[in-house]
Each structure stands twice: as C-alpha cells, then as structure tokens.
Amino acid sequence: MERMDPRARSDAYGSRINRSHSPFLASIVPWASILLASVLPVFVIATALPIVPPIAFLVLLAWRLVRPGLLPVWAGLPLGLFDDLFNGQPFGFAVFTWSMALIAIEIIETRLPWRAFWQDWFTAGTIALAYILSGWLLSGGTPTIHSLVALGPQVVFSILLFPLFARLVARLDRFRLHRWKALG
Amino acid sequence: MAPTGQRRSGYSRRAQYNLFTGYIIAGIGALVGVVLLVLSLFQPHLFGGLRGAASDTVSPATETSATVRTGSKSIWESVSGYYRAGSKNAALRREMEIARIRLAEADAVRQENLRLKGLLGLRDSEVKPVAVARLVGSTASSTRRFAYVGAGRDQGVRVGMPVRSPRGVVGRILETGGDSARVLLLTDTESVLPVRRAKDETVAFAEGRGDGLLRIRLINLGINPLEVGDLFVTSGAGGYYRPGAAVAILVEKADDGGLARMVSDPAATDFVSIEPIFEPEAVTAVATPTETELAD
Asked: In sequence order, what are the beta bridge partners of B149?
C-alpha cells in the first residue's frame, strides 16, 4: 500500500495529529529566556575591560523586534528589576533604560509599520549604542574618556551580534509554539 | 514584516482599556526606574542586600562554571607548553639559576630585617586570610568592574577587606552576601589605592581608569622619576591593604606619573584570599569626622 509522506500533515511546529501547543511554554519562553540572559554575563570571567555585550538587553530587543506584540510595552519594569540584580550598574538602571527602549520601539513602530530586517537591525543597533553610552554615563563611577574608548569593542560586538540573537529568538519562538504529544 | 494588529483596538472597550493601561504602566515603569537610579546613585549601598541575595542564589552554579573554566584553561596551557619546549626549557633553567641567587639574597635580607625589627621591638604577626575562595564571576557587560567571590558574611568576610591572588592585589570587598561577596576590582574608576615604587619610597596613588589600566599619580610632583617597567606595591597607607603586595607595572610615562598594568589580572586569577583589614583602627580614624574624638 502506498504510504503518504509522513510530513504531509505537519507544519513548522511539528505534526498536528494528537498534538497541541503547550500554553505554559507559549507564555513562559520569552520571559524565561530574557531572565536567563540576565544571569549569563555573571558566568563570564572577570575581564579588565567590559567586552561581553549586554546579552539580556539584546535578547529583549530581539523578542520585541522579531516577534512584535508578544512582549507588552511595560515588560521593561519586571524584567529590568531582575536584570538590575546582576548587571553591576546602579540599581534602577535597567528598569529605566529597558522601559525607555520598549517605549521608543513602540513609537518607531507606529511611524514605520512596514519594516525589513535591516531596519530592525538599525533600530536595535542604535538603541544598543544608546544603552551602552547611558550605562557609561550613569555607571555611578567617574565617566572618563578612557573608559569611553574602552567601550568600543563592546558596542561593535553588540551591533554585530544582534542578527544572531534574532535567529536565536526565532528558534526559541519555534520551540515556544511546538506541538507536544497529548498524553492519554 | 507586516505590522501586527495589536495596536488597533477597534470598538472593544476592553481592548482599548488594556492598551491604554499598558502605556500607563510602561510610563510608570520608566519613572520608577529613574527614582531607583537616582536613589542608588546617591546611596550606592541601598540595594546591596537584594543584590547579595541574588548573587548567593547563583553562586553554586557559577562555582561549577569557574571549575570548568580553569580546567579547560589548564588543558590549553599544557597543549601550548609543548610548542617550542626545548628553547623554553633552556630559558627557564637560566631564569631559575638567577632566581635561586636572588632567593638567597632575599633570605639574607629577611634575616637582617628580623634582626633590625628585633632591635626596634616591632613584631610581625603572620597574616591569616579570612577566607580562600574562587573568583566565581563578574559583571562582564557593565562599565563598572566588579567580580564575585564564593565566600561571604558566613565565612567572616566584611566590607572593605582586601582581596589578593597569589600574584598580587585584586581589589577589595564592596558588598557581602551570605555566601558570596562583590569585589571592587582595581581597574574600576572608583578604585584608588595608595602605592609605592618597590625599589624606593616614591609614593603614589593607583587609580582605575575603567579600560583595564591603572593611572599612577605621584604625590610629590616635580621631576618624574618613574621608568617603564617599575613595579608598584601597596604602601599600607589608608590602613586597608598590608604593605608590600604587588599591584602594577608601569607601561607608559606621563607628566604626573604614568600608566600601569595590573600584576594580577582578574581574568587569569582562579583562587583568591580575602585578608583582614590591615589596620582597622586607622580605617575608623579616617572615617571619623575631625570634630569627634576617637573612642578607645
């Protein structure tokens, strides 16, 4: 007997028969991935220069830009509070900057409803640059010209790594909406 | 990408209110952020407890990753050690012979020191570290240079204690949690350390620049006596650090001092020892306003 193509009934999120999305995963994955990314830089060894890009902030931007409408505009408040516990900046820095970034993207989105990826990349790059510079200004230390120069590699890394984070978020989004086999 | 229809609330009251409330909360969030930021800029230790608790929670995981990291580093070192092993071996042998001679000289100096101190009636007590812990992590993406160590209040670590690696000074304790503590590294822009040149009594301050180098500022201005390659050690002034611990090596001369590189790069540091404050009385004396008398 001729068999059908086994993938005929499936789509990007897996087979459809006897399977369904998990509401828990669908709602938790964006938040959990950003929280995890907040803790991640702590594991990197103490370097003399700030080299590691602000991973949590880039993941937040990627979720917001790759999947618009998923994160509410107020997400910067709770996520920023958590990030402030680990980021080394004065407490409240992430709450403020993340909220401002999300509001800024909201405004950009009303002005430019149709966008290509490179425009999103430009937005993310500009916002990441503003984030790192305001981190230099509001670090609680003395903002010296030398520490500004030292930020160069971090800014370059952050801008170049954004497409990677966007792809990562796209993968996570597929995982978020994966259909799981229903038990029983 | 097509715009989402999320912003068009249509005639639904509920959707309109939801959207409106979202914007309100976002605005309030930004305001809360500003208030917290201003509070913590003027009172840096206000949220220390929260951060301490947070770093306590992740410290078991960072402990594990630190072990893996040092393990992988030593594998790489042993691989790269085979590269040009012969010439390195010869160079090391030459170096060791010189080091042996220097060691013998140092022994003689130590003897003499002991004798002179005996004459003066001074007594050097052996400094026992409060705790020995791993440098478990850092705030790698922030402009500030902080690191975390895997020992805290429960091990007797207090704010202000100096942190040393086998090579030299790393920084000092800024905040303590139960089982972890936050270290202000020497390269942070807020770190100032009194130092002196190892071979004479040229005193200076070593300030962090925030870009991985230390700025050496001479106290006595005039003709700059420093030379590239000079080693700086702690002078013991200020009362926090024990004198004689290696800090930095000069790499560039400037008008009022120079630029120096840390001897003990935190990235290459595995275990650190947390030592008691050298002269606690001096520290309290400095912190006491001049009008009030020091209590005995």
From this structure: B135, B181
- B65-76 pLDDT per residue, tens: 777 766 666 676
Which residues 135-154 on chain A approach chain B with CB closer than 8 angstroms?
Answer: 135-136, 138-144, 146-147, 149-151, 154
Q: What percent of chain B has pLDDT over 90?
A: 2
Q: Which chain A residues touch B209 with a CB distance below 8 Å?
A: 144, 146-147
The H-or-E segment that residue A21 falls in is strand A19-21
pLDDT in tens, B187-200: 888 888 888 888 78
Question: B265-291 burial string, b = 16+ CB within 10 Å, else e?
Answer: bbbebeebbbbbbbbeeeeeeeeeeee
Q: Give yes or no for residue A48 having a pLDDT over 70.
A: no
Helix (H, G, I), strand (E, B) or coil at B13: helix
Number of residues that make up chain A:
184
A99 contacts B65? CB cut-off 8 A: no
Cα distance between residue A54 and residue A73, in whole Å:
20
Q: Report the length, in residues, of chain B.
A: 296
How many helices (H) and strands (E) chain A has is answered by 7, 4
Q: Are B266 and A47 in contact (CB under 8 A)?
A: yes
| Domain coordinates in residue numbering, chain B | 46-78+130-279, 92-124
Which tens digits make up the pLDDT trace of B13-61? 888 888 888 889 999 999 999 998 888 888 777 777 788 788 777 777 7
Question: Look-up: residue for tokens 């007997």?
Answer: A1
CATH for the stretch B46-78+130-279? 2.40.10.340
